[in-house]
Specification:
By secondary structure, the protein is of the alpha/beta class. It contains seven helices and twelve strands. The protein has a five-stranded mixed sheet with strand order 2-1-3-11-4, with helices on one face. The protein has a five-stranded mixed sheet with strand order 8-7-9-6-10, sandwiched between helices. The relative contact order is 0.20.
């Protein structure tokens, strides 16, 4: 009897995205490919850790979900990590065209509204929670927006590094921080588990659109397998069952993606990569 294909899938997107989303992807691939899928997740880094052997180069992973920032850093350095030409599209009030890419939601506690906080600039001197300095949605897009408004890092009051978008949202909810910028998909999914559905968190402004979430595939896989996996994702919207199951996580559909999404101004990275949250004094 021939052995079943085994696919090694890793996600670096938790807890930004709920791990249950990736468990659903495992179920989808196993049923569609009649294969086994082994799921691993690493919440310590937005992509393969630079101080460890690279899982693509070591041939330890077949499919990986990483952040756009991590992909833009590694895409020219890793010949075995190939962009799969497909990406999830998430629901958001700003995404009226249902296009790939995501947003950064600037959030405050409902009580801040009573203190005449109506725009981003009203948050001058307030305590800011961020997941990490490299994050496009949690840090870089905020710095870029402030720079466009004539501000710099002196705009911030205290800075609290939370370690994750989920923790940043919780800090705002518990009033440890006065504001944060979080991945829009994190806010969408985490509100379901917050007290009263997270009604005490208000989205003050939405920044972006940011580049799509990249899905990487091991280039050693056969073209047939890569093309089949791509088509499986694209066909989700044709199935009532899978559309409903993915819809629970705010996924509307999967759409095409390419390296063009991560190049030039659209990537948001190059004009803000040298900006930091802490003001420099010379």
């Amino acid at each position: 009897m021939s052995e079943k294909l085994e696919i090694r899938l890793v996600t670096y997107m938790c807890p930004t995205h709920p791990v249950e989303l990736y468990e659903l992807i495992v179920e989808l691939l196993e049923k569609a490919l009649d294969c086994y899928v082994v799921l691993q997740y690493d919440s310590r880094s937005p992509g393969p850790m630079t101080d460890r052997p690279d899982p693509f180069q070591e041939n330890k992973v077949d499919v990986a979900f990483i952040t756009a920032t991590a992909y833009m850093k590694m895409k020219l350095k890793n010949k075995f990590a190939e962009l799969l030409p497909v990406t999830p599209v998430f629901a958001h009030q700003m995404n009226v065209e249902n296009k790939p890419g995501y947003f950064s939601d600037v959030i405050i506690h409902r009580d801040k509204k009573a203190h005449n906080v109506n725009t981003l600039l009203d948050l001058r001197g307030c305590t800011f929670a961020y997941n990490n300095e490299e994050s496009l949605s949690g840090s870089k897009i905020v710095l870029k927006t402030l720079k466009e408004k004539g501000e710099n890092a002196s705009f911030f009051g205290s800075l609290l590094k939370s370690g994750s978008h989920l923790a940043s949202a919780q800090m705002v909810l518990s009033k440890q921080a006065e504001w944060a910028a979080v991945d829009s998909t994190t806010l969408l999914n985490s509100k379901r588990y917050m007290h009263d559905g997270g009604k005490d968190i208000i989205t003050l402004e939405t920044l972006g659109r940011l580049p799509p979430y990249p899905i990487l595939v091991n280039s050693r896989l056969s073209d047939t397998i890569k093309e089949t996996i791509t088509q499986i994702f694209l066909d989700i919207s044709k199935s009532t069952h899978w559309k409903r199951e993915f819809g629970k996580f705010g996924v509307i559909k999967f759409d095409t993606n390419s390296d063009k999404s991560y190049d030039g101004p659209a990537a948001q990275m190059w004009s803000i990569q040298n900006e930091t949250l802490n003001i420099r004094y010379y």
